[in-house]
């Protein structure tokens, strides 16, 4: 007996490569673009509340309320982002047999404020995780190219060079200064330094 793959497992296209960035979340090799959700309004609210928080007396009831409001806004950002990333990764993986993901346009990065950068980092990482998991499920070929590779070889604290890391290594402890780094965040800090 021959096993027939369910119809939804057949990809419409052979391959796609996806370029991740900050302003536009993803640019596909077929020319289509995926704009990410806009967080600037939430970002502004968070900043305002953080200023307020700094002025409020420690252990006060109001300070606690402000903290909760900030946490809720962060959750709101995370939910919106996850929803967007799930939809996009499902579409990309179901339509293509091979998926090549390229992390970030570095030149765009230095212009961005910290929260935007953190959100982007989380978004890229989650998108990669979702695409990887769904590719496995759908029987697709998945590959990620990290354009930060050279910047991931140096400690962003003391500039000690530990050399090339295996792609599987996601966090590093510097041999020289002992700082613990997330691989991508360390690379991002190095990129920001060398503007
Ligand atoms: Zn170091």
Descriptive notes:
- There is one protein chain.
- The chain is 47% helix and 16% strand.
- The chain has helices at 40-55, 61-95, 106-109, 114-138, 183-193; strands spanning 13-20, 26-28, 33-34, 96-102, 141-145, 171-173, 180-182.
- The strands form two sheets. A five-stranded mixed sheet has the order 3-2-1-4-5, with helices on one face. Strands 6-7 form a two-stranded antiparallel ribbon.
- The radius of gyration is 20 Å and the shape is globular.
- It starts with 12 loop residues before the first strand and ends with a helix.
- Bound molecules: zinc ion (ZN).
- Zinc ion (ZN) binds at residues 155, 157-158, 160, 174, 176-177, 179.
- Zinc ion (ZN) binds next to loops.
Number of strands: 7
| Spatial ordering of strands, largest sheet | 3-2-1-4-5
Q: Strand fraction band? A: 15-25%
Mean of residue pLDDT? 83
Whole-angstrom Rg: 20 Å
Distance between the termini: 61 Å
Shape: globular
Number of helices: 5
Secondary structure: helix percent: 40-55%
Write the layout of secondary structure elements.
Blueprint: E1 13-20, E2 26-28, E3 33-34, H1 40-55, H2 61-95, E4 96-102, H3 106-109, H4 114-138, E5 141-145, E6 171-173, E7 180-182, H5 183-193
Parallel strand pairs: 1-4, 4-5
Antiparallel strand pairs: 1-2, 2-3, 6-7
The chain binds zinc ion.
